UniProtKB/TrEMBL annotation:
Domain of life: Bacteria
Transmembrane segment boundaries: none
Domain DUF302: 41-103
Pfam families: DUF302 (PF03625)
Protein name: Camphor resistance protein CrcB
CDD domains tied to this protein: DUF302 (cd14797)
InterPro entries the record matches: DUF302, TT1751-like_sf
SUPFAM superfamilies, sorted: TT1751-like
PANTHER family: INNER MEMBRANE OR EXPORTED (PTHR38342:SF2), SLR5037 PROTEIN (PTHR38342)
Phylogenetic classification of the source organism: Bacteria, Pseudomonadati, Pseudomonadota, Betaproteobacteria, Burkholderiales
Amino acid sequence: MSVDSADNGVVTIASAHGAVATADKLEALIRARGLMLFARIDFSGDAARAGLAMPPSQLLVFGNPRAGTPLMQAVPTAALDLPLKALAWEDADGRAWLSYNAPDYLQARHGLDASLMQPVSGVAALAEAAAR
């Protein structure tokens, strides 16, 4: 299942792995492509430390200053959505998903020129590879 919501720009794809394994695979792909991993946030782990329970959920924040900086120079508000983020998560039934912001949504949201979007458009292929 792949959902590209026109309402909020979030693309969600099914993963063949659990959420943590999907996040691990995505991290490996990010590093292999020479991108920077700025943060990996373990929401479910943080919830457990607070005495709360939630299904596995991890957010990876990643990018490349050479790709993101021109977008932020053109439209400073693009920094609200950059660096790129991908959320590996499991639903109540234990199915794993990978969600990210669609580049065309980011382009429309911030009024960015299409020529600037090429370097960040690879997020879809990265997500697909991590979910396989």
